[in-house]
Amino acid sequence: MTARTGPPVAGRHSNPSGRRALPVVRSADTHCPYCALQCGMRLEEDAEGTVTAAPRGGGMCKKGWTSPELLDHPMRLTTPLLHGRPVSWDEALDHVADKVRRVQAEHGRDAVGVFGGGGLTNEKVYQLGKWTRLALGSKHIDYNGRFCMSSAAGALNRSFGVDRGLPFPAEDLKGAEVVVLVGANPAETMPPFMRFLQNAELVVVDPRRTATAESAQLHLQPAPGTDLALANGLLHIAIEQGYLDHGYIDAHTTGFDEVRQTAAGYWPAFVERITGVSVPDLYAAARLMAGKRTAILTARGSEQHAKGVDTVTAWINLALALGLPGKPSSGYGCITGQGNGQGGREHGQKADQLPGYRSITDPEAREHVAAVWGVDPETLPGAGVSAVELLRKCGDEVKMLFVLGSNPVVSAPRATRVADRLKDLDCLVSLDFVLSETAGIAEVVLPVTQWAEEDGTMTNLEGRVIRRRALRDAPDGVRSDLWVMKELAARLDAPGHYDTDPEAIFEELGRASSGGKADYSGISYERLDERTFQWPVPGPDHDGTPRMFADFKFATPDGRARFVAVDHRHPAERRDSVYPLYLTTGRVLTQYQSGAQTRLIPSLGGTPDSEQFLQIHPDTAVRHGIGDGDRVRVTSRRGSYTAPARLTADIRPDTVFSPFHFPGAANVNAAVSDVLDPISRMPEFKVCAVKIAPAARP
Ligand SMILES: Nc1nc2c(c(=O)[nH]1)N[C@H]1C(S)=C(S)[C@@H](COP(=O)(O)OP(=O)(O)OC[C@H]3O[C@@H](n4cnc5c(=O)[nH]c(N)nc54)[C@H](O)[C@@H]3O)O[C@H]1N2
Ligand SMILES: Nc1nc2c(c(=O)[nH]1)N[C@H]1C(S)=C(S)[C@@H](COP(=O)(O)OP(=O)(O)OC[C@H]3O[C@@H](n4cnc5c(=O)[nH]c(N)nc54)[C@H](O)[C@@H]3O)O[C@H]1N2
Ligand code: SF4
Ligand SMILES: [Mo]
């Protein structure tokens, strides 16, 4: 069986194939396996077993079109591996269960941990949280969402009392007059999302002139890590120019006085000095946003910082001062990243969380969830630690780790040290369908299903619950993540029930989330066959909640949105004479995340973006004796990587950029810092200090 793919062009709707069409033997209406936009996708399999993907109504980017190429890929895992040797499922699972028992007998239950992912279905993350707390009896579970939208989540909870990335349908953005994109590059990271922005004037805040910035009315190009000062500076100007909505502030918010006092200190000239954005541009941006239907959207560029929560808070403060949240086609939103980045943060794979966005330290929440699980609340462990902290404990307090839905050897900050930590474990277990770099160092690798072979639900960037539908069965030898949990629970004589039927798990998830903030209790697979629902959906007759703040009621105890005064701090590392440049990191259109999946897809290869590169300003390159295409070694206080130079005036002269899709000697995360935000525990992926030098050819 082979995969045939459509045109390698972002967002095109046709799928011309050179081949004669064979009869379609199977089809399924599902969604793309990759990002949080979760583009609707129709999969078709022909008589020769070739699978094609095409959009259903909306658009799709090149990654969606080519996604079926991984289904029958020669690198697809179809047998469990023990120390790299193919073994039977029984041998692999017996070995794993035996290791769990031995490690826990010697070091306690918390010595076994779980590292999950925001790409896993709701059913998987729900059952994974339950399985960790009951079958392993461990507090140690966290996931890669800490690397992703956790800073926005922290700020949303603090200001609005609830964390749903977009509190309104993306379609509403078509009615916005101005959209401010702060550290977001959707033209590459979610190309079909751009159609929602086509009617708006765009303000793009990015240290690089990206494909998104190309289409902007105004591009502000601040130094990495200075967005907080920028937002406070815009608020200063809004106050000075009388752009505020005082009626809104009085009626729907608390805490403005302190924020006004803080903003008073952010004089435009002072903000220009911190950010590098000129005073006239600051005024132009504030003027554009004032008195309009304006939406402010942040993504990873402004969030992946050691002050990510406060930075997002500063933009929310600005939105509140202009009276935006709750008004039509206006407000603040975070562009969530991973396929189930939203649902993945709601149902209990977070260290401090139980299903329905409940807190694991709240006695009432523990009682409710324990009742659904049929156990005594006393038996539920307490809160564990965040992703980076969990990785730091590996080989030390944590002796055994299960990884599913993440490839931290490539994607975690200080990746070289992370790999060392994982090698120090008594046992690393990886569930994956390809031999990712993390699976590559695992003692046990368990081959699992891909998206086209499973049912489930995902919650997209609008908090919209959608159905994933199987096209066909998995290849021989492959099992589902759910089946693995059930089998191991049985071998461990674990309390609790573990299903393999996603619909049964979703029904249980509904009950466990009932009454919580992210309430799914009114959604069923049957209802999802008719339509989609944006949570909360508190009952079977409830139609969902497309617009969370439509009546200006926020999810805080007093129903008002909270202004929170926040001050600028410098990045954890500043440029100096030894490390004179800022390194920032991110994504290119054709690769996804750690690249474990997309680097294997033939149709995504062979372009300049299918290999690592270093984006660098020509003036900076000249000063370092570097020409276009020359190999460069980039070194921080933690480590280094090499990449060919790509000279362009699109980046600030004090900043260089590389994507994080590439492993080994090209892995930018060898250099990236793991300093954390105090609230979200988000690492500072988007800024550290580096030096560069020409590198010898490998
Ligand atoms: N092609 C592709 N698409 C993806 C993904 C992928 O891996 N590949 N991943 C998905 C996921 S999980 C996520 S989280 C999203 C991420 O989506 P985005 O947030 O759009 O992606 P990034 O490239 O990480 O960062 C966006 C921009 O932030 C800029 N930036 C860097 N530092 C700063 C700063 O200090 N301030 C500001 N204002 N901007 C800064 C970068 O130059 C970059 O252009 O994409 C999703 N979509
Ligand atoms: N320098 C730098 N580093 C970053 C970022 C950055 O901007 N800069 N961004 C961060 C962000 S936002 C994110 S989200 C992370 C993402 O980085 P990772 O957490 O590494 O995410 P993926 O590369 O998507 O890894 C998913 C792995 O799980 C497998 N997989 C996919 N679906 C399933 C499933 O259903 N079950 C199982 N068992 N396995 C599955 C895939 O094959 C793959 O090996 O990277 C972070 N790292
Ligand atoms: S934009 Fe995201 S969901 Fe849509 S096709 Fe591309 S990767 Fe898939
Ligand atoms: Mo992400």
UniProtKB/TrEMBL annotation:
Name this polypeptide is given: Nitrite reductase
Gene Ontology biological process: respiratory electron transport chain
InterPro entries according to UniProt: Asp_de-COase-like_dom_sf, MoPterin_dinucl-bd_dom, Mopterin_OxRdtase, Mopterin_OxRdtase_4Fe-4S_dom, Mopterin_OxRdtase_prok_CS, Prok_molybdopt-oxidoreductase
Signal peptide: none
UniProt GO molecular function: 4 iron, 4 sulfur cluster binding; metal ion binding; molybdopterin cofactor binding; NADH dehydrogenase activity
Keywords: 4Fe-4S, Iron, Iron-sulfur, Metal-binding
One Pfam match: Molybdopterin
UniProt cross-references to PROSITE patterns, sorted A to Z: MOLYBDOPTERIN_PROK_3
Region (Disordered): 1-20
Native organism: Glycomyces paridis
